[in-house]
Amino acid sequence: MRSADLGRGLSLAEWQNRDNRARYDRPDHHTLSLYLEGGEGVVREDGAVSGGGPDKLCLLPAGHESRWLIGGPLRMLHLYVAPETLAYQAVSALDVDPRAVSLHELTFAEDPATAMLMRGAVLPLDWAAGADRMALGSACHLLLHALLRRHAGGGARAVTGGLAPAIRRRIAELVEARLAEALSLEVLADEAGLSTFHFAKMFKASFGVPPHRYVTERRIARAKDLLAEGGASLAQIALACGFASQSHFTRRFAQATGLTPAAWRGAA
């Protein structure tokens, strides 16, 4: 019925279907699905599970397999999440090691708070309108936090192969302190006492995303804070956040949020 690519590994789709079959064959993304209308006649054939209906949730992690018999009509809302995006949120928002996070698979689950957020904060917005992009992005990030807090586990398993916790904290602090500078992989690797090759590999294991992606995400987050404060010009914010120029800042910010910095400031 409609879809939207929100950038940074997030996208949305509103679907309708009836009297059909569907299957998931090891997709490379997580899918959070909310039944909006119908669904009582849906059966998950690979588990012989029924019990769908309005406001029921399914959570289908990346790499899973399932088969579905769709009896009767239904309408549903899907949020698609790249694993890297969820991993970055685990690190940046909750300070959780992404290697210790795995999403639970859910079929026809009850989660009124998440259902209300999807119905009330995502569904009514105009996904194509620039004016709604900030609210849409904020709502989807709240959904990511809900997934991590309520529907993720695995934290008790052994975590190996990444940066030591003290080094991880030191690298994160270094990035925050030097966002205005032209940070290089060599500088970060030197701080960790590793070769650039081994540092890049271990960084992604610890932070969920490659070093360049993490630095860019932190620069965008800092820029949002400065835009909300309202005192600095766009050129000053670009400089303070380590972008090569105002045009470079504008381009990267729009890629990340769907809005130019000026439009973001106007909507804040």
UniProtKB/TrEMBL annotation:
Which Pfam families does UniProt cross-reference here?
Answer: HTH_18
Cross-referenced PROSITE patterns, in alphabetical order?
HTH_ARAC_FAMILY_1, HTH_ARAC_FAMILY_2
Q: Which residues form the HTH araC/xylS-type domain?
A: 169-267
Keyword field contains Cell inner membrane: no
Q: Which UniProt keywords apply?
A: DNA-binding, Transcription, Transcription regulation
Coiled-coil regions, chain positions: none
* InterPro entries assigned to the protein according to its UniProt record, in alphabetical order: AraC_XylS_family_regulators (IPR050204), Homeodomain-like_sf (IPR009057), HTH_AraC (IPR018060), HTH_AraC-typ_CS (IPR018062), Tscrpt_reg_AraC-type_HTH (IPR020449)
**Protein name, please?**
AraC family transcriptional regulator
Give the species this sequence originates from. Methylobacterium indicum
